[in-house]
Amino acid sequence: MQKKNVVILGAGIVGISAALHLQKRGVSTVLVDRQGPGEGTSYGNAGIIEGNTLFPYPFPRSARALSRVALKLATEANYHGGFLPRIARWLWNVRQATTPAGLESTARIMRPLFERALAEHEELVEAAGAQRYLHHTGWLRVYRSDDALNKLASELALADESGIPYQKLSVEGSLALEPSLAPVFKHGVLWPQAASYTNPLGVSRAFHAHYLSLGGESAKGDAKTLRRVQGGWAVTTEEGDVHADEAVIALGPWSPDILQPLGIDLPLAVKRGYHWHFAAKGNASLSRPVLDADVGYILGPMEQGIRVTTGAEFAHRDAPPTPVQIGRLMPYAKNLFPLGEPVEPTPWLGSRPCFWDSRPVIGRAPGQSGLWLDYGHGHSGLTLGPVTGRLLADLMTGATPFTDPDPFRAERFL
Ligand SMILES: Cc1cc2nc3c(=O)[nH]c(=O)nc-3n(C[C@H](O)[C@H](O)[C@H](O)COP(=O)(O)OP(=O)(O)OC[C@H]3O[C@@H](n4cnc5c(N)ncnc54)[C@H](O)[C@@H]3O)c2cc1C
User: Fold this and answer.
1) Candidates 53, 204, 325, 379: which one to mutate for ligand 1, based on the most atoms within 8 Å of Cβ?
2) What digits encode the pLDDT tens for the residues 190-206?
3) What is the pTM (predicted TM-score) of this model?
């Protein structure tokens, strides 16, 4: 393979999007992954493009919420006891960063990315011919208690200020949108600016095929073989050594495997999450993702069935799966929607790559010339992959960045 301008390590939604943006600007690129495009974390998400997202996921503050997590009764979170000391400092930082003032500050910092996210997807979907996966039906969140709805007040106030539309719905209004739901909740809120995919893997594959059609190249290989060579970087792939002037780390939760040996140790942790597809009983169907807010899971209509996705599990990335949250939440999911038999024998497990300040790292790698970072997209990597790909391409090509890149620099942690 001829020497390229840029080698991108990681062909998840983040790496593919960055490669597409660079390739479109005439930068010759090669994408390297050890498996097929989109088969990592990007395979298993809830499929939501969150144009509406404001507040990041907060650390639980009430004694009741904390004790339910501690006693392993919570549906929304689980943890491996032996692992907690390893992320105690990271958890403490999340707690400090998600005070009411912290939530609002993060929302304002992240808004330029979320605001542009859906338009970036629409552009790529159109170019890649992936329209059949994209649905502009919004995101419905249902609330079983008045208390849960009341907690939304500050987020809704910020939505009003930011001009983000939402509709408060009665039970009847919610059922008019989703007639297969059971009226086991008290309130609904529809966020019409969100969209969703019915096959995130299909989307990654379509974007990747579009990338190849633009002259981009792709190879299977282990990112751990990345090494500095005269005039740039080299990686060993099944097609031989790939050489490039510059390299991008877009390895999601695996990024530290390559960065730590290079002396770059940023505070990334993972929040593991599960999904499981179920057949719908009878003629039941969903037209959009539904968050059961008090319980903490999402039902999403996918080509494979109804995808139930869990909240966070704090455990080592590579520890064996412990899908106890699915067991805890299934009674609630089944009383909200008529779920039938599971489609697969066991749930899927993935790891959200998360920095404690709920922002990705986009930009130059500190202390390593010609190395760039594009990872740590947390709960919203599907949403943000294309827009952060644009920001990275702006920075790498010397174009004026479409938004201030400073809040996303790695140096904020140093
Ligand atoms: C349960 C769940 C639900 C979610 N729901 C949503 C949602 O609705 N909306 C949303 O916006 N986001 C959601 N997310 C988050 C989103 O899926 C992730 O943020 C996003 O997929 C991260 O993409 P990525 O490209 O950075 O990582 P990945 O998709 O994991 O890509 C990294 C790639 O690196 C490769 N790799 C790793 N190590 C090596 C190596 N040594 N050599 C070569 N290749 C390697 C992997 O094979 C992989 O393909 C969810 C996540 C989970 C787990």
Assistant:
1) 379
2) 999 999 999 999 999 99
3) 0.97
